Amino acid sequence: VRRVTITNCTIALNRSWIGGGGDSSGGIGTGGNKSSVLVQNSIVWNNWYGNSGLPDEPENVNEYTQIHGYEWQPTFSVSNCFLNAAGPTVYRGTNGNISGDPSLSNLANGDLRLGDDSPCVDRGNTFVDLDPLLPGLQQLPPFDFFGNPRIADGNGDGIVGVDIGAFETPR
Question: For 150, which DSSP code?
């Protein structure tokens, strides 16, 4: 695959094993020859590599464990995403990307929905490049995975927007 598009996804608490075959990314990694990866409106957070059960060693959660290209210089385009604070510095603070703690509802139990105080609420783009064969940008599907409206006022400020990540905050 030469081009991959990742839109409104939550990629969190994934691990790649040390010595497991090349790429040290527990998040988004590619080893494809001159591949192109477009990441939009997504959370890439707290992914790690290592053989320990949890990401308890800071050196195992770094920029390479979030978004990383292995060999052949893949091209990454990252916009309106929430990245781990240890994530790639080249993407933080640019193209609408933010970092810190996404305030997921209950990460310990696998609940990756956004909490009420999440900085990801209403921070995504409504129009994204879903289909590289179509010119320009396309509007997101109207609903998220749980059937919540994708374009909504998630934080109650009177302005409708799209949340970053897989799940919209219902109001």
Answer: S
* Distance from C-alpha of 164 to C-alpha of 148, rounded to nearest angstrom: 14
**How many Å apart are CA 136 and CA 104, to the nearest integer?**
32
Rounded Cα gap, residues 114 and 121, in angstroms: 7
Phi then psi for residue 10, to 5 deg, are: -120, 115
Instruction: Compute the distance between CA of residue 148 and CA of residue 129 in angstroms, rounded to an integer.
Output: 21
DSSP secondary structure, 122-134, as one string: T-B-SEE---TTS
Q: What is the pTM of this model?
A: 0.83
Model pLDDT for residues 62-76, shown as the tens digit of each residue: 555 667 666 556 678
Taking the C-alpha atoms of residue 7 and residue 82, their distance in angstroms, rounded to an integer, is 12
